[in-house]
Amino acid sequence: MVKKTKSVKPAQSAAKNNWYIAGLHFECIQCGNCCSGPEEGVIWISKPQINRLADFLGQSVKDVHKKHLRKFGFRCSIKENPHTKDCIFLVNINPAPVVLYSSQKKTDLTAGKRSDFDLATTRNNRCGVNGSKGCAIYDVRPTQCQTWPFWPSNLRSPDDWNTAAQKCPGINKGKFYSFDEIEKIKKQK
After folding, report:
1. Burial bucket for residue 73 (CB in 10 Å: 0-12, 13-18, 19+)
2. In this predicted structure, what is the pLDDT of residue 128?
3. Second label for 99, Cα 20 to 30 Å away, from 6, 49, 139, 152?
4. pTM, entire model
């Protein structure tokens, strides 16, 4: 005789197996820690994201590929600083007005093109924890960056989440994310 089992909906089943069913707190404080070394990594970026990045930087897609991306098979990743392994868009932040410093010209980031930068602030003058580092492309950052810290590798266990929190001061602080919100973010590619 086959024993009848109670039917469980997939969402209910997934919820029972996840330690974060009660939700988690996270608020990006733009410290740049998730963008920095010491290990080499990849920051996947899709074709539509490359187009948005090109528009944001005021560069052609070809120039963005040449200056800022590297190929991995058929995919692209944002380049890293070869010495620090930081994302090349993790830059020193100038707490002064939003100005782009270049070897050739100064351009207000809110007014025009955003090319060839040495130091930059984002449009909203985000300045990170210490005012020292920040993402120069925060408004158009790739999905991989947008979904941090709700990556499957960080959500395997409370230990994995707390290990990520040692590097990211925004974990366990700020906005509350429900289980459903976390699952939706986690599934973005």
Report:
1. exposed
2. 40
3. 49
4. 0.68
Task: Specify the residue for token string 């024993």.
Answer: 3
Structurally, the chain folds into a number of domains equal to 1
- Between CA 174 and CA 153, with CA 20 as vertex, the angle to 5 degrees is 90
CA distance to 13, 113, 158, per residue, from 89 (Å): 40, 16, 30
Q: Whose structure tokens read 């924890």?
A: 129
CB atoms within 10 A of CB 110: 12
Identify the domain containing residue 56 by its residue range. 24-148+171-186
In a domain, 90, yes or no: yes
Which of 137, 173, 130 lies closest to 33 in space, CA to CA? 130
Which residues is 15 bridged to in the sheet?
A: none
Two structure tokens written together for 2: 């086959």
